[in-house]
Amino acid sequence: METILSIHQLSKRYGRIQAVNQLSLEVGKGQVFGILGPNGSGKTTTLGMVLDLVQPDIGSFEWFGETPTKESRKRIGAVIETPNFFPYLSARKNLEVVAKIKDYDYSDIDRSLQLTGLYDRRNDKFKTYSFGMKQRLAVASAMLNQPEVMILDEPTNGLDPQGIAQVRELIKKIAREGITIILASHLLDEVQKICNHVAVLNKGNILFSGEVHEVLAVSDSFELKANDPAALKAAITEHPAFRSVTESDGILLAVFAELVTPGEINDYMQQKKITLFHLAERKRTLEQHFLELLKDDPS
Amino acid sequence: MKLLTIELKKVLTYKTFWIIIGLYFLFLGLGIVMAEFIVNAMVDDVNKRLPIPLPHAVLFNFPDIWQNLTFFASIRFVLIFPAILIIILITNEFTNKTVRQNIVNGMSRSEFIFSKLQLVFMFAVVITFILTLVMFILGLIHSDSQSLSMIFNRFSFVFGFFIQMITYLCYAFFVAFLLRNTGLAIALFTLYTIIIEPVIYFFLRAPFMWENKVYTYLPVNAVIRIVEYPAIPALKKLMNFQLQDEVTLLSCAIPVIYSMVMIGIVYWTFNKRDL
Asked: Which of A52, A64, A67, A82 has the highest number of chain B CBs within 10 A, making it the mutation to test binding with B?
């Protein structure tokens, strides 16, 4: 798989606070990669570093397998925190500035304004826009001329339910076109709905990362233990909803493709003449873990 | 050219830009129109007490007009208008956070600095050009002799004015990049130009310090001194002016060195700083 972004041991400290701590991750082509974590977990700092806004203390990163330059940033469309535009310029003029910086001509501006539903208001000044429209203009500027990768930092923050739905729909639409997306969010639900890969961040550390259905949608994963691990493993593999199984310290972690209850697992194992002496649903622990992270977070 | 195009896009539809530029040329125009009246009113006033009356000042004839108008156009209160505009245009990028978006979109930090320097350069060129055009026309109207050598004698004052403009705008550029906050930067810059430096100047110029001339190295003062006096013989006698025939390269060197150091500091800090 082609790597779009790879980060190696990136660290940033602000005074006494370690904002990002030896963070490493890889984003592959075509992924919709979520960076999930509460506010202050280092999401924006990480994105700031890979976009040359923040100077890392140590560590490095590569865009498209190369040492990053301004030219690599021209291949990226990014929305960072708040939509930043000139208040007195119209949407169109603001996008002309963006296009000019990226060495594009203006031919794609109308299309991106239409896609984000701003075409009718294209000649109005940015400062007359509602917050939702500003956010959509930010998305429009990021998707100018089909970038290879889009970075969206809290794209639905502060939007009303309708605005949230619009922006999420837009992101899905972009993802379907095969554009790699890196999305930072503090909303578990948002990452689950949009992303296929995720890294969960807290206090600058990656807690876990992987495919979304493995890391977050774990309502269908179980820890199992029996006196005959080989037979247990075989039985799990034969289960109709089987997806994957991994072993650590004699405990098997089984992931199922669809929702299975502990009772059903127990019945199934009894049919296979296996007596379980450990059966635990992973769902609760993971979700609780994440909720605990968010509990520290006032928002 | 690309960077300048981007700058023009940002600037030309900005209402504040046109208001300040308008005010600047209004002040400048009024100053030019009234200068001769004011100077001659002073001469008349003094003449009442003098046995041999001083001659009336003629400001607009070649080649004195170059020196006279660049002198009036480079007094602190006039020079500060375009400088404030530069401060607003640069600090706006920080308050609107558009500098972040520019970098994210693929501008390098050096390009960002360079684009603002291009703006400074363009301001200096355009203002000098307009002023030169005005001086040329006024000179043609008011001069009897219109030989080329007469007209372009002492043209060095136009060059001097250009250096005044570009270096003073570089100071504004420096303050804007360092403080990033529009109100604070304007307040400090204005305060320094109008009050702080004149006060320092006053104390440095006190009689016991007379010989060492440190005051000539004060940054704003060094800019003002490029065109130090107008070419008005009457005023010369009244206020003990010295004669200034040409703009000297030495007087240009001090503010140019200041500007280069400031650009260097901006370059060095901006490339290291988090945005």
From this structure: A52
